[in-house]
Amino acid sequence: MSGLTYEEKKELITRNLQEVLGEDKLDAILKERDLKIYWGTATTGRPHVAYFVPMSKIADFLKAGCEVTILFADLHAYLDNMKAPWSLLELRAQYYEAVIKEMLSSIGVPLDRLKFVKGTEYQLSREYSLDVYKLSSVVTQHDARKAGAEVVKQVEYPLLSGLLYPGLQALDEEYLKVDAQFGGVDQRKIFTFAEKSLPQLGYEKRIHLMNPMVPGLAGGKMSSSEEDSKIDLLDTPTDVKKKLKKAFCEPGNVKDNGLLSFVQHVLFSLFKEGEGFAVSRAPENGGDKTFNNYEDLEEEFASNKLHPADLKATVEKYINQLLDPIRKAFESSQLQKLSSAAYPIAKKEQDGPDRLDIRVGKVLQVSRHPDAEKLYILQIDLGEGEVRTIISGLVAYVTADKLDQCLVAVLCNLKPSKMRGIVSEGMVLCTSNDTTVEPLIVPSSAAAGTRLTFQGYNGQPEEQLNPKKKTWEKLFVDFKTNDDGIAVWKNSFLLTPNGEKLTSRLANCCIK
User: Fold this and answer.
1) Record keywords: Nucleus included (predicted)?
2) Which of 322, 351, 394, 423 has a Cα-to-Cα distance from 40 of 20 to 30 A?
3) 44, 92 in Cβ contact below 8 A?
């Protein structure tokens, strides 16, 4: 970036790093030209908020005028104990590219100054393959296994693929034509392996820039495979609050505190001049306070002047600010479809909401139950040729004229049951809070009889739910509206065949 001295560029490149290998070479290059760096990520589990740590460093690199390449290491994802099935490699890479571009946009990083590359674009070439064979002739099994010890899953009898992993990562430095590779300190053994191995093939060794490992919410490494240790980039504000509530945050303890590490390595590197970590709290708890540097914040927490609840609440605010534009982008039907295809929901048959037969119904007639003043008798067209009779307790909440000719969502595979002498053949799905009950809002374009499905679930509903197994009772616990009033089961939207969502005026309410 023009206007910065060599020292200023180096300060941006190296700030918050735990270690730099090849600092002399870094100095020499920066005195002559801008640095070329790559950061790679294996496209395995869904990226989570800890990915903002490398993203914030990528922002630093760009501010320092570096040429930055982001490698979506799809082939590596398969080699690491098949964490990404071969059939999903392309979809996972597409998902990573989409979500990481949205992450960078959310922190103001211009995408036109970055290069995005997929590993399979060059790792299947003749030249690269020949170099893999050459490397295999100079690397021992012991050295390959040692190099991947912190990154590749370790087992007593490793697959050959896991042993290839470090060598391929080393060769990436040459084939991406970079001066330096950036990664976490857990990659250190692979980096030193690369420094030793590349010169054996006649290639120069590169600079290695290492980030510290940010603790997870439960302490220890934040991992995609440990649900409670990480916040997914598409988690709702409710999910964020729930996970932060469980986060390890012992009063005065600054060691293994994932919240403080996130503030240090992400938020403070993103704050603009004059901004700081703004804590809002009651006057009796110390009042509002803005911390303009991380050291003051850590000291305040260590001396028990900042309560964990206030730290959590403030981190929650900033995380949601980062995630809001990403969530918004992934509301598009195209990205929802990509997300579902790249990460098909693994589920036990008995746990899936696709066991529910939920269809659009049109209310043709509304009358009062002769023996129950709080119940309506609804005649509903469900596209079956004959109308169904459904009893609903909406008298106190919705007038008959508002229900008449209305589109509703109906749970159709409950066992028919008598309600005050009249058989009810289903249930109109409603949202409710302490004072209000109202039917879910069905898109006007949906036709009577249309089957509604949950995003990511494609099983066939049961013909009739067995009441003894309490299937509906177990499933409806996670059936609700989210912060935006959209109907979801866990995080899966309830959708029409056209991808339209069902909604309600009532947010964060159960559906039953």
Assistant:
1) yes
2) 322
3) yes
